[in-house]
Amino acid sequence: MGLIQCKDVCKSFGEKVALENVSVDIPEGKIFGLLGPNGAGKTTLIRIINRITIPNSGEVFFDGRPITQEDVEKIGYLPEERGLYRKMTVGDQAMYFAQLKGMSSKDAVNELKKWFVRFGIESWWNKKVEELSKGMAQKVQFITTVVHRPSLLILDEPFSGFDPVNAQLIREEILRLKEEGATIILSTHNMESVEELCDNIALINRSHVVITGGVDEIRHKYGNDNAELIYTSEQTLQPVEGLFRVLSDKDDAGRHTSVLALESGVCGNDVLAAVIAQGMTVNSFKELIPRMNDIFIKLVTEEE
């Protein structure tokens, strides 16, 4: 059983159905990707987990029991719509949020100072929030989300507004927080981040769950059984009935890079034996696992 379980959650706003019988199981100590196109229902589900919105039916469980307001205090939530008080200083703002989460003044100062050093923003403490760029403000809001060491982190598009260097810094911090035991829900459109960070995902489209499971499991399940073969020969590889088709073959002075479509259930050793039998010298052979971006587009397109 996961740290968070959503069972048959339904939510409507008037005639608009936002979620329909949504069930997901979010494992403890893992990074769980919540994916879907705009308007699919991701943010509604996040708000229900946070008890900002109440479902019409269904239940959310925290650590095996119905979630309560006390459990919400163990959650760190970074919404997609960011918001800081522009006239406050950065330090006062960060202290305010830390104390809202139950931290003492002393603990808040100690922890915040550590985070400011880690993010290289020690000099910002007495600056006004309105002086910060969007990316700088994003750093402050990320810190205020995690400073109280929540057992569950919900990050909605956490890389929005960051340049590549700072986006990588946030990725590294997310992985570090996972290593320290946090459970993380990551809602994002960035499929590279999903592949790099997530252990499990749920894809929501048109208010219901299309697929859920482990990232590697899903990538293999929706693969096309394609493989990349690099070989050396003056001849071009020919397809072998019952084993493989040649989808493409690029020849660079006798060194060929081919993409093969393998027949279902075919063993790689049998493919290599057939290639060698044609007189080819094999340099490398590897399975081509589809990218999450391709799977996302395929599943959403099929739904529509």
Summary tags:
single chain, 304 residues, alpha/beta, Rossmann fold, Alpha-Beta Plaits, 2 domains, 4-stranded antiparallel sheet, 10 helices, 34% helix, elongated
Task: Explain this structure.
The chain folds into two domains: 4-220, P-loop containing nucleotide triphosphate hydrolases (Rossmann fold); 224-288, Alpha-Beta Plaits, CATH 3.30.70. The chain is of the alpha/beta class. A hairpin with a 2-residue loop joins strand 4 (57-62) and strand 5. The mean pLDDT is 91. Helix 3 (90-100) crosses helix 4 (105-118) and helix 3 packs parallel to helix 5 (134-146). The strands form three sheets. The protein has a six-stranded mixed beta sheet, with helices on both faces. Helix content is 34%, strand content 31%.
Mind sketching the topology for me?
Blueprint: E1 4-13, E2 16-26, E3 31-35, H1 42-49, E4 57-62, E5 65-66, H2 69-72, E6 75-78, H3 90-100, H4 105-118, H5 134-146, E7 152-156, H6 164-179, E8 183-187, H7 191-197, E9 200-205, E10 208-214, H8 215-221, E11 226-232, E12 244-252, E13 255-262, H9 268-277, E14 281-288, H10 292-303
Parallel strand pairs: 3-8, 3-9, 6-7, 7-8
Antiparallel strand pairs: 1-2, 1-4, 4-5, 9-10, 11-13, 11-14, 12-13
CATH class value of the largest domain: Alpha Beta
CATH superfamily of the largest domain, by name, is: P-loop containing nucleotide triphosphate hydrolases
Write down the overall geometry: elongated
Second CATH tier, the architecture of the largest domain: 3-Layer(aba) Sandwich
Percent helix among the residues? Answer: 25-40%
Strands in their spatial order, largest beta sheet: 6-7-8-3-9-10
